[in-house]
Each structure stands twice: as C-alpha cells, then as structure tokens.
Write a structure and sequence with these properties.
The complex is a heterodimer of chains A (112) and B (111). Helix content of chain A is 0%, strand content 59%. Chain A has no helices and 11 strands. By secondary structure, chain A is mainly beta. Chain B has 111 residues and is mainly beta. Chain B has strands spanning 4-7, 10-14, 19-25, 32-37, 44-49, 55-58, 61-65, 71-76, 85-92, 99-101, 105-110. In chain B, strands 2, 4, 5, 9, 10 and 11 form a 6-stranded mixed β-sheet that branches. In chain B, a hairpin with a 6-residue loop joins β4 and β5. Classes of the chains: A mainly beta (112), B mainly beta (111).
Chain lengths: 112, 111
C-alpha cells in the first residue's frame, strides 16, 4: 500500500483565496483524521470521520474551515477565505479503529 | 478536557548519550503510543503499549506503560544523528477511534 497520500505537498496562496487540501486514506481504513501542526500549538485534531461520516468536528477553528469525505477513498479540507494565521502544516491520518494509525506526509500551507 | 503532559519540551544532547522523556495523563487510558516525526514528514508509530506495566523495546528504543496507567516513558540508548526529530506520546481514546497527542519533545543531537 502507498500509505496515506496528501496533496499538494506545499501550497502558497494569498489571503482571501480558497484553499483545498486533499487526502487519500489507506484502503480498508474506516477512520480518517485531519490535523493541523504549528510550533505554538503542536498537533491539533481538527475533525474526525468514521465510515465517511463526520463524528467530531469540535477542533475546526471556525466556519471558514470545512471538511468532506464523499467516499471511503477521498477527503478534502477546505479553507475559505484563507488568512495568514491559517499557515501551518496540515496532516491527514487514517486507521482501522485504533490500529494502523498512519499519517500522510502533510501539506505545508503558507497564506501571505 | 483530557490533559496530556509531555516533558521535556526539547533536549540538546551529545551523540552517544542516552535520552529519556515521559508523559502523564489526567485520566486512565488503555493504550499508550509513541511516535517520531522526522523533519518534513508526518509522525510515524514507534511503539504501542497495551497493558499496565508493559515494557517494550524496538531496537535502541524502550518504552513502558506505567503501573498507574496514567504515565509512560520512552528511552533511547546510545543516540545517533538520525534520532533527531520530534517525539510524541499519544493516547488512544477509550470512547472512540481518536488519538490524543502530547505537545512533543524536540530532540537535538550535537556533533
């Protein structure tokens, strides 16, 4: 298996633009997680899906952030409009229950 | 909410030294996990601990699940340059599939 695949690896965008981050989980995994990592706040869980259904979105910072999982092999995290404080590394992870919890390589987002 | 405290925040050591870091939680959990994050990559699982008192090794790494089920430590023996990175402790939730991460210990190795 190729692991969890995220795209793009790097994204630079201007403030106010829409940003879409993509994730392909490991086949057979039924849980998918979006994290944000910054120096100040560490790894923060933004949202968690189980069997394509959002279970816990309490970590989503505000209404500018939204996430979807239309099927078992694809998820998106969208920021609209983006702001400089959204600059961070965004990770996607997938697991089967607690097992095989695997992270992607992340998307480094810079909003200027 | 759940409190997971990891220390130290960062460490500067000489190559060849042993390293120790630990985590404590405010509640009892069933699984402790230790991850390492290399620069520019996502965290990768090093060791998983499932029973109180369990001591598990993975090469030069040793981790233990505390008897009280509220703490864990990770030791690295004879550190080498590729040990540089951020080490995270993590707990698997008792209620769902989420994993809760500590703030991380950033390990620096001086030549």
């Amino acid at each position: 298996d190729a692991g969890v695949i995220q795209s793009p690896r790097h994204e630079v965008t201007e403030m106010g633009q829409e940003v879409t981050l993509r994730c392909k989980p490991i086949s057979g995994h039924n849980s998918l997680f979006w994290y944000r990592q910054t120096m100040m706040r560490g790894l923060e869980l933004l949202i968690y899906f189980n069997n394509n259904v959002p279970i816990d979105d309490s970590g989503m910072p505000e209404d500018r952030f939204s996430a979807k999982m239309p099927n078992a092999s694809f998820s998106t995290l969208k920021i609209q409009p983006s702001e400089p404080r959204d600059s961070a590394v965004y990770f996607c992870a997938s697991s089967f229950r607690h097992y095989g919890y695997t992270f992607g390589s992340g998307t480094r987002l810079t909003v200027v | 909410g759940q409190q997971l405290n990891q220390s130290p925040q960062s460490m500067f050591i000489q190559e060849g030294e042993d390293v120790s870091m630990n985590c404590t939680s405010s509640s009892i959990f069933n699984t402790w996990l230790w991850y390492k994050q290399d620069p520019g990559e996502g965290p990768v699982l090093l060791i998983a601990l499932y029973k109180a008192g369990e001591l598990t090794s993975n090469g030069r790494l040793t981790a233990q699940f505390g008897i009280t089920r509220k703490d864990s430590f990770l030791n690295i023996s004879a550190s080498i340059p590729s040990d540089v990175g951020i080490y995270f402790c993590a707990l698997s939730s008792n209620r769902d599939d989420k994993i809760i991460f500590g703030k991380g210990t950033r390990l620096h190795i001086l030549p």
